[in-house]
Amino acid sequence: MKKLRALSVVSALLVASCVGAEKSSNPLSPTVAGPIPGVNITPPSPVEPRDGVKIAADQQPITLLLANAATNGDRPLSYVFEVATDIGFTNKVFSRDGVTPGEGRTALRLPDPLASGRTYYWRAQAMDGANSSAVSALAFFTIFTPIVIDQPRLDFPINNTRIDDLKPEFRLTNAPRSGPVGAINYVLELSDTDTFANKVAIWTFRESPGRTSFDAPHPLVGDKQFFWHVHAFDTSTNASGPWSDTQAFRTAMTVVAPIPGPGGGRPCGPPYPNQPFGIVQCRRSQYGHMSSSQIVAFLKGVAKDLNAAGISGGPFGILTKPSGNQCEGFSCDFICNPRGQGWDVLVDAEGAQTPIWGNPKGYPSDRSCIIQ
User: Fold this and answer.
1) How far lies 357's CA from each of 175, 222, 275, 278, 335, in Å?
2) 15 Cα distance to chain centroid
3) What is the mean pLDDT of each run of 10 residues along the chain (372 residues)?
4) Partners of 369 in beta bridges
5) Nearest-CA neighbor of 228 among 182, 256, 196?
6) What's the pTM?
7) What CA–CA distance (Å, rounded) separates 328 from 350?
8) Minimal CA–CA distance to 303: which of 279, 275, 328?
9) What are the structural domains of the chain?
């Protein structure tokens, strides 16, 4: 009897041993001994994000996408994903294994947003429980907080009000903004139409805390309607906001007080405001679109009035230009003095013929200034 029991125990052990051997030899068994000889798994390949792409912080959590690995083995693959803040993966911020492959590609959406303002590296590896691929190539991306700049609000001059002079002080409430915004500048466009098809001026100026003001650097034409709008931009990134609403205003009525002077039309001088630009404006207002001879008469009149008013920089005259012009041998838009200095008085003599008083500049020594 004891002999029979011993034989039964031996038989049971042999059966169990045979079952275990059959289980471990099956390549699909979870307990297969590995690695399995002859099995090769290629590394997966990161598809996106990669190549340093920048991702806005509000577009998170991100999804990692890779091209699947290939295997010549029978065992199904799964993937390990890792994300770190350093290329050596000593500071991992995310890791997940056992990710089931998709068809051709495998996507994994991170559970939480990553911190902004950092570069991240990620990689993946394929495994079948017995064999593993090499680690994939590294991919990297950056999370950033976008700069958002809103409209500024125009405070003055607005509502088509008439201002007291010809050099308005433009005032605005600063544009709201969010994100890592640096120094802000504003661009102001001034036009005589609400479509801004004809821009009279474009000025750029710095922001001041809370509210910003800007004085027009040159007087405007008197008794005229103007339209203006403004937008803000970050000087470090050039990120810009939308244009403000458009506002309109009218410049002050011009007052001309004639003074004695030589001919060439009605003289312009003291107490005319904003000299010498006021004199240029006054003379320009005496003409419509000027012909060549009228331009010369305009230039002579401006020079005479400047001299009569005792404007600093004189005596003033008109500049000879023997070739390449249509103004009877003179420059079409220039007032000069005999010391080699000159001033532009028309923005475009052949087109808009807008009055201006530019900064002094030189003129060629082979030309002469004819004092008026």
Assistant:
1) 32, 15, 9, 9, 10
2) 78
3) 41 41 57 80 96 93 96 94 97 96 96 95 95 96 94 96 89 94 95 92 94 91 93 93 96 56 54 74 82 87 88 90 77 90 83 82 87 87
4) 319
5) 196
6) 0.48
7) 14
8) 279
9) 45-144 (2.60.40.10), 148-250 (2.60.40.10), 277-371 (no CATH)
